[in-house]
Amino acid sequence: MSDFETARNSMIDCQLRPNEVNDERIIAAIRAVPKENFVPKAKRSIAYVDEDLEVADGRFIMEPTIFARLLVAADVKDTDLVLDIGPVTGYSSAVIAGLADAVVALEGDEAFAKAAETKLSDADIMNVAVVNGDMKEGVAKQGPFDVIFIEGAVDEVPEALVKQLKENGRLLCVKVEAGVGRAHIITNKGDELEAKNLFDANVEAIPGFEKAEGFVF
Fold it and tell me: Whole-angstrom Cα distance, residue 126 to residue 158?
C-alpha cells in the first residue's frame, strides 16, 4: 500500500467516520479517488489534511469532513444529475461522479476548468462534463438538476441556481451569516422552497458569492 493510500484510509477512518460519515457508498466514492492527483505537486504530501487545502491564490478544495457531511445530507442517488459549482481542479466532481449518474462541473476560472477536464480524463472518469462559465448563473441549459453543490462558503445563494433545481432537488452549500458558517440545504418542494441549516461549518469562501442587493435565501 502506498503512502497516499495509507493517508486516504486514515482520512476516512480518523476524520470522516468519527464525524457521522458512515454511508458506505460515500466512503467508497471517496476511497476510489486519489486526491493527491488533484492538488499541486508541491502539496501532495498534505493532500489529506483535515482542513481546506489551498490549490491557488484564493481557491481551495473543501475540508474533507465538511464535504463528506454535505454529501451525506445531499443523499445523491445513482440516477441523479448533479451540478458541482467551483470544483477547481475537479476533485469534488470526481467523488460525486462515483455516486451520481452524471455531473456537470461548473468552474469560473478557465485554467482550472481545463485542468479539471484533464485530471478527470486521466482518472478515466467519463460521466463529468466540465463547463467554464459564471458560477453564480449555473448551467440552465443542462438542467434542471437533482442536486447542486457549491464548493465553498457563500454569503448568499443566487436565485438563478435555485431555479435550476428539479422538484425534490437539493442545493447544498456553506452559508455565512453574521460571520458564522453553517451547512445549508435548500429543497425544492414543488410549490415551495424549504431552507434550513444543518451543522456548523467554517470553510473558505468561493469567489463571486458575496452578499449583494436583491434576492437572498
Answer: 29
* pLDDT, mean of each 10-residue run, the chain (217 residues): 90 95 96 96 94 93 97 97 97 98 97 96 97 97 97 95 97 94 96 94 92 58
CA gap 156, 173 in Å, rounded: 10
At how many degrees (to 10) do helices 3-10 and 24-31 cross? 160
* Predicted local confidence at residue 5, as pLDDT: 94
Contact by Cβ (8 Å): 9, 2:
no
For 27, list phi and psi in degrees, rounded to 5: -60, -45
What is the pLDDT at residue 86?
97
Q: Phi then psi for 6, rounded to 5 degrees? A: -60, -45
d(CA 217, CA 210): 13
Indicate the residue type of 47.
A
Q: Which fold has domain 3-200?
A: Rossmann fold (3.40.50)
**Which H or E element spans position 112?**
helix 110-122
The answer to whether 184 and 162 have CB atoms below 8 angstroms apart is no
Domain residue ranges in the chain: 3-200
**pLDDT on residue 215:** 53
Which three cell numbers, joined as nine digits, stand for 82?
A: 448533479
Q: Does the global pTM surpass 0.70?
A: yes
